[in-house]
Amino acid sequence: MSDIIQLLPESIANQIAAGEVVQRPASVVKELIENAIDANADEITLIVKDAGKSLIQVVDNGSGMSETDARMSFERHATSKIRKSEDLFFIKTMGFRGEALASISAVAQVEMKTKPGNEEVGTRIQIDGSQFRGQNNVSCKQGTSMVVKNLFFNVPARRNFLKSNPVELRHIMDEFHRLALAKPEIKFCFYQNDIEVYNLKPGKLSQRIVGVFGKNYRTQLVPCEEATEECSLKGYIGKADFVKKSRGEQFFFVNNRFIKSNYLNHAVVSAYEGLIPEGTFPFFVLFVEIDPKRIDVNVHPTKTEIKFDDERSIYGLIKTSVRKALGAFNITPALDFETDTNFRSYTSARPSSGLSPSERDYSQFRSAGKDRSNLKKWEQLYEGALKNETLEAEAKSEADAKGEPVSLTFRSAINNRDKDLGETDQGTQNIFQFHLSYIITTVKSGLIIINQQLAHERIYYEKYLKILENSSGSSQQLLFPETLHLNPSDYSLVKELEKEMRGVGFAFEYLGENTIVINGIPSLIKVDSGEEIFKGVLDDYKKNFLEYKNDSIKNLARSMAANSGIKRGKKLTIEEMRSIIDQLFACKNPNYSPNGQPIYYILGLEKIEDLFKY
Question: Do 223 and 197 share a structural domain?
Fold first, then answer.
């Protein structure tokens, strides 16, 4: 039998290795900027064209490399950070300089220019798909310039798997955000197709957050800081009223390296328990400093996942620190040590349980809300209470005189028929709203309970699907156009969805600098704020992105439905409830909402009868 096992050629081995490290243009951006940070640069510029497919360039003013180091950095397993195995547990740098360059140069056309500060001339190296093209001296500034052109030019199958430019650009922005937040003391610039997207000056973390995400974050940040003997935590969290429907603005850094950890994310979200609605996500940028010996950063090729030797203690520190920060924010602004407006008008006349009805004073409650618009209704309420207590006292006095027990009957509003409730032909009610959330009506087999919000989402979802498939959406013009400032990531998302959003009925114009003007909204939407619905649709689209990664129409239809339909807590008339029921059961799939939740439940006669059996 002939031998069949052989060593792979170096170029093929590098391409295979590139599959782990270089998944898309954003992967290249991450590796190159991390190398620039490790070179002690204080100015880093990122330049991309066609979302990184045709050009990615990273320029830094760091220490640069010698002629020999420049050539060695493209070899596999070359690094300046590790000399022995123990060094793996003392790593505090971002990347291992040169670790990824062999992989990048295997699937792209790469040019490096680099010069140390003590040299008169620098070095230029050119490599195309692992093929060394040349090395020569060149005049350049101190630092390193890495140019990566035509990514995956020699691996067409990989290039075909890349997404559209707006999608790839958003991935690049995500990496840029993480690295810029990790190092607020470094100046970062970002250019896309020769247009400046970011120009972030060095400063404090809070300034960097505002620079990355926008000025509206300035008033939403709450400082969070805690330290123990084992580790320390610092950073910022968002206020409880600043949550979003989608993930994406949650950042954990361990020793200044961005990591992904559902476990630690849960620690933050659980600290917000009871403060934010279910299914929403708070903003946070948190830094954990810990002894490198207590973590392992080499459990994933991209180093976005790490292992702790005691993850539970880190979880506890984060949860406690966030709760403490939220508590300080929620309590401190309301404290007034001179006077307590919450109790001032009540403590002086608090009745004891032994007071008789005639001795109780309700006047304090009348004065408690004089500035309210519904003052008349409050007064009527307490007048009723006083009247009932007066009747009670008179009846008791009369009964005592006659030696009879007290017997009183007061009218209850529960016995009054609601004028809004409809009646069947037989004269009985057959449809009503329960807890402002559910529609209940009779069917032949019993009672049907319908979730009004989910039902409306299903109705609108199918309407918007049809509109998007035919591009037949109509628009209602806003009385006053609304200006909306977006972060660069959301701005690129709008450009990606421009055709679909215009097709569904949005009318808007670009003003540049991540700003748009909303002139009209879809006619199906019954809200006055174009800004509110536009932001809501974008947030829901990002939230559903993983589920509808390759189907922007279904994703947008679901996002539109979630922001167009009625919500829990909305009072409905009989006509509105009947309309919802009729439209729901005219849908193709009336059983489940767009996100798979059951819309209604039938309580059968047998089940009802079982409730009354012994």
Answer: no
Q: Does residue 608 sit within a domain?
A: no
Are 131 and 257 part of one and the same domain?
no
**Which domain range does residue 386 map to?**
358-416
Tell me, yes or no, whether 590 lies in a domain. yes
Which residue is it, tokens 């009723």? 384
Tell me the per-residue pLDDT of 34-91, one tens digit each, with 9 for 90 and over: 999 989 999 999 999 999 999 999 999 999 999 998 998 888 766 666 555 555 555 6
What are the CA-CA distances from residue 397 to residues 361, 390, 401, 579 (Å)?
20, 11, 6, 55
Does 39 fall in a domain?
A: yes
- Measured distance CA(408)–CA(391) in Å, rounded: 9
Looking at residue 197, its amino acid is V
**Between 342 and 456, where is the model more confident?**
456
Q: How far is CA 456 from the centre of its chain?
A: 24
Residues 134, 233 within the same domain: no
Query: Do 152 and 298 fall within a single domain?
Result: no
Fill in the DSSP letter of residue 76. T
Please tell me the number of Cα atoms within 13 Å of 425 on its side-chain side.
Answer: 0
Q: What per-residue confidence (pLDDT) applies to 398? A: 53
Q: How many CB atoms lie within 10 A of CB 606?
A: 9
Say what the pTM is.
Answer: 0.68
pLDDT of residue 342: 36
Quote the CA–CA distance of 19 and 227 in Å, as a whole number. Answer: 40
The whole-number average pLDDT for the span 532-553 is 82
Residue 344 in domain: no
**Residue 391 shares a structural domain with residue 250:** no
What is each CA distance from 451 to 19, 325, 350, 599, in whole angstroms?
Answer: 47, 37, 43, 6
Across the range 109-117, mean pLDDT stands at 94
DSSP annotation of 142 reads S
Structurally, how many domains does the chain consist of? 4
CA dihedral sign, ordered 150, 153, 155, 156: positive
258-313 tens-digit pLDDT: 988 888 999 999 999 888 888 888 999 999 998 888 877 665 556 677 788 888 88
* Cross-strand pairs, 233: 226, 288
* 8-state DSSP, 418: P
pLDDT of amino acid 375 = 47
Q: What is the CATH number of the domain that holds 75?
A: 3.30.565.10
Q: Output the average pLDDT for the chain.
A: 80
Residues 158 and 71 in one domain: yes
pLDDT at 487 over 90: no
Query: Is the pLDDT confidence value at 369 over 60?
Result: no
How far apart (Å, rounded) are the C-alpha atoms in residues 277 and 245? 9
Domain end marker among 372, 388, 416: 416
Q: Are 378 and 256 in the same domain?
A: no
CA distance 36 to 10: 26
How far, in Å, CA of 485 to CA of 217, rounded? 12
Q: For the domain that residue 234 is a member of, what is the CATH number?
A: 3.30.230.10
Does one domain contain both 41 and 75?
A: yes
